[in-house]
Amino acid sequence: MVIVPAAVRAGSEADEAAAARHAYTEKIAAKYNFRYGRENPFLPSNATTDNGEFIDPKWFPTAEYCGHCHQESHKQWRESAHSNANRVPYYLKNVALLNDSKGVEFSRHCEGCHDPISVVAGALTQGSPKKRPYDQDGVTCSVCHAIQKVDTRGTGSYVMGVPAVLVDENGQPITRKVSDGEILAHLDRHSKAVMRDFYKTSEFCSSCHKAALPRALNDYKWQRAISLYDEWQNSSFAKQSPLPFYVKDSVSTCQTCHMQRENLKLTDSGAKKGQLASHRWLGAHTVIPKIYGFDEQAARIVQFLQNSVFNVDIFALEHGEMVDSASNKGLVAPLGLTPFTITPGEILTADVVIHTVPRQARAESIFDRIRAVAARNNVAVHDLSVQSLHGKLHVELHVELNENLPLIEAHSFVSSLEAEILRETPEIDSVLTHIESEPATIEQPEEMVEEDRRIEKALRDAAAQYGEIVDVHQILVGRTSEHITLSCTARFQITCRCIVSTK
Q1: What CA–CA distance (Å, rounded) separates 300 from 255?
Q2: What are the DSSP calls for 15-47, one per residue?
Q3: Is the peptide bond before 57 cis (omega within 30 degrees of 0)?
Q4: Helix (H) or strand (E) holding 168
Q5: What is the rounded CA–CA span in Å between residue 95 and residue 45?
Q6: Bridge partners of residue 472, in order along the sequence
Q7: pLDDT tens, 77-111?
Q8: Cα 495 from Cα 492, distance rounded (Å)
Q9: Which of 67, 86, 168, 238 lies at 20 to 30 Å from 9 by C-alpha?
């Protein structure tokens, strides 16, 4: 049986949570090694928290908890590099060497990305347990979905908040433990709690997929370790640099290639039209599947790499055999634009370029870019559709604007939004936008106790006519200026939630 509360509120719970967090911070700080000062508790990682305090690891929901409703995501994640980021033998060996040679506080540099909970919980200090229950989840669901802000320095350059899987009616996060029933009753609030627009950007990935060795770690000098985000930014995929020779038709983010939408095999409430953004993050990492026997992940990686993601381009020819890479005599480049002749029997040196090609559906790319434009303009769009008519693409969408906005201002804003969409997606021929009002007024309905009781009795009497219904409870009667809304929970052999609206 699912019990849906009358109202999900943060209220005084927020104050209680803040007090509990402060108490936890004081407890950890009493024995914590502040090697880099109390103002920098997480160095040499660039990670930090929303208010600088530690976060109790018990406040991070487990991946198993998320898997109640997200079975497909959980299965994919469990076999991914994210899930196993802090438990593979070679990583543990390196961290152990660092701990033994310099001290456990130095491993915050590594664990900020490989085991973020241990860092923000203040667990990486002398005397703390070496085996922690949350280690098994590595970079778990509630880690990524609790990040509030990032920058592109890397080495864990994110701001972690206390995880919340639900917000209250005022949009404030509810950080206590929330039941499945509460989430299912307020799916819109669940989405607001766990999703942010920047989660779909390459900048989000840059916070960990870019790293450096600071002087505070190596006692030598700052050194770049990996620069995957910079490589993307300088490539033709980002369309931010004038330098790449190869030109792409549209912007491709990290998610374009590594989180492609795929058909469901298991149930998942996060799916749209039977498809889910992959949480396998397929790339070229074959070691983890080999170690743990993740046969499906291994097969999917091979399939990903064989799916035309690489192009081989004979970019240039050089007359004569190259010796010690020293000669470019008779260089002809780029082929296809520069004429050349060769003679039978001539020795040639070919310059070959291997570059990746994102395999993204054209329409999906358009949807992503339109939503990105809307996000930059701080508006919500829905019912977005793209139609191909007579060889031309036409877009139709609905946009929500403040109900108090004058009509002329709303029209001007939408005209500017449509112009930006057309600039961002030149393959689109036209955009039709429907303007809707975004409610800004909280309804204050008049209490009608006797009327509410009459409606409740009528509902119970109606339910009694059906033998399949065991009972109805948690009956709530709400009102707006135009409608009466009736919400209830009914118990069958299986549980469902019914909403009836009458005008």
Answers
A1: 17
A2: HHHHHHHHHHHHHHHTT---TT-TT-TTTTS--
A3: no
A4: none
A5: 14
A6: 490
A7: 999 999 999 989 999 999 999 999 999 999 999 99
A8: 6
A9: 67
